């Protein structure tokens, strides 16, 4: 907890007479900001976000503290997302300040040379290549090579049976970058690839297990756009894929890597970018505290609290920090805590059932998290709940003794 007296929605009581320094020393804290539901709703900027950045940016147009934007979106290129945020927020956002859900896939170099089927929408091939994958095939390319596999849409069924393909190289793994447009096609062809060991044109008498490696990003079941109610996210697509695979094979779909919030790997990656940003600005004081501001209790709050728990474990046990299943070792960390701040401008509503349910009934609430993240009710509790991101920034500045 950040401490202090905070109402369920609101800020601590303070006045202009509070003792706050007029000139700040180098920051020892940084922000991890979610985007959808915190800064924007769909393509519209939330007014409180503009107020927040008037506080975060100095008169020279530079950030006063390190900030990284951590989103579970992935259907856009990193530099394009930076340009989009720059236009919306009114100051220059650098590409290396933006973490998309799949950004940590850069660390899985042992798969970068393999032939990978990539699922999602937007610039999926470009994104895969930016991440380091050198040999990718899209779902549409696979469908065109084997048109008899995609049979749900009657209008897309081939009029005649094409000759079987023998020249299509075997697929060696699957990349799930985000929700696709035609779920039935992607679900069918991904299952085909897994059941056939990467040779969907031939088929196998017995499905291999363990199956080909699967890397997935963005586990959000729901997300908030312009609609009054949350929309299906990539977590819903993953749920469909896992359920179908288990129903067909009787076995669990396994992931070689799951990234995006609430994965600790994503927060390690964000922490490293925060540290690099502080070093580039010449801020010599180590960044000791992170404040994660989000609208989704299951991804933003759960993830920040899970990372805080991890930091405490490392500090207590002196355990060596590892990332990406031991494949990547982050630099020694000075970060001591990660506090979660929940805003009410997105998925979370202070009038929703999760806000009014007694604490003892928390375990009975529907679990919106991913199957591979066990449900711990305590990790769903935000350090603070405020109305919007502007109030969140004010709260942190006050806590850190910074002039508002």
From TrEMBL:
The UniProt family comment states: Belongs to the HAD-like hydrolase superfamily.
Transmembrane stretches, start-end: none
Q: Does the keyword Transcription apply?
A: no
Could you list this entry's UniProt keywords, alphabetically sorted: Signal
Is Protein transport among the key words of this record? Answer: no
CDD domains annotated for this entry? HAD_like (cd07511)
Q: Which InterPro entries match?
A: CDP-alcohol_PTase-I, HAD-like_sf, HAD-SF_hydro_IIA, HAD-SF_hydro_IIA_CECR5, HAD_sf
Biological process (GO) annotations held by this record are: glycerophospholipid biosynthetic process
Q: Name one GO cellular component term.
A: mitochondrion
Name of this protein = Haloacid dehalogenase-like hydrolase domain-containing 5
One short Pfam name that applies is Hydrolase_6
């Amino acid at each position: 907890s950040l401490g202090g007296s905070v109402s369920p929605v609101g800020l601590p009581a303070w006045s202009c007479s509070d003792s706050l320094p007029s000139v700040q020393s180098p920051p020892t804290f940084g922000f991890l900001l979610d985007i959808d539901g915190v800064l924007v709703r769909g393509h519209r900027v939330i007014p409180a976000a503009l107020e927040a950045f008037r506080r975060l940016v100095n008169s020279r147009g530079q950030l006063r503290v390190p900030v990284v934007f951590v989103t579970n979106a992935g259907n856009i290129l990193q530099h394009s997302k930076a340009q989009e945020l720059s236009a919306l927020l009114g100051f220059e956002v650098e590409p290396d300040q933006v973490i998309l859900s799949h950004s940590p896939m850069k660390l899985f170099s042992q798969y970068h040379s393999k032939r990978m089927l990539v699922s999602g929408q937007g610039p999926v091939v470009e994104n895969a290549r930016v991440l380091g994958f050198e040999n990718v095939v899209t779902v549409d390319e696979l469908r065109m090579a084997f048109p008899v596999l995609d049979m749900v849409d009657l209008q897309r069924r081939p009029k005649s049976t094409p000759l079987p393909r023998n020249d299509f190289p075997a697929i060696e793994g699957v990349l799930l970058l985000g929700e696709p447009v035609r779920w039935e096609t992607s679900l069918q062809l991904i299952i085909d690839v897994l059941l056939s060991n990467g040779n969907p044109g031939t088929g196998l008498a017995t499905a291999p297990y363990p199956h080909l490696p699967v890397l997935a990003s963005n586990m959000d079941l729901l997300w908030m756009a312009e609609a009054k109610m949350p929309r299906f996210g990539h977590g819903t697509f993953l749920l469909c894929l896992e359920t179908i695979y288990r129903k067909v094979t009787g076995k669990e779909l396994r992931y070689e890597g799951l990234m995006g919030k609430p994965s600790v790997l994503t927060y390690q990656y964000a922490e490293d970018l925060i540290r690099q940003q502080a070093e580039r600005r010449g801020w010599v004081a180590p960044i000791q505290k992170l404040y994660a501001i989000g609208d989704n209790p299951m991804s933003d709050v759960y993830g920040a609290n899970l990372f805080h728990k991890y930091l405490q474990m490392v500090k207590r046990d002196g355990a060596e920090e590892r990332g990406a299943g031991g494949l990547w070792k982050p630099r020694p960390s000075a970060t001591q805590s990660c506090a979660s701040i929940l805003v009410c401008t997105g998925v979370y509503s202070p009038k929703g059932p999760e806000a009014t349910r007694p604490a003892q009934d928390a375990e009975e609430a529907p679990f919106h998290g991913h199957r591979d993240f066990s449900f711990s009710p305590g990790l769903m509790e935000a350090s603070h709940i405020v109305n919007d991101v502007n109030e969140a920034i004010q709260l942190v500045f006050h806590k850190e003794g910074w002039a508002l």
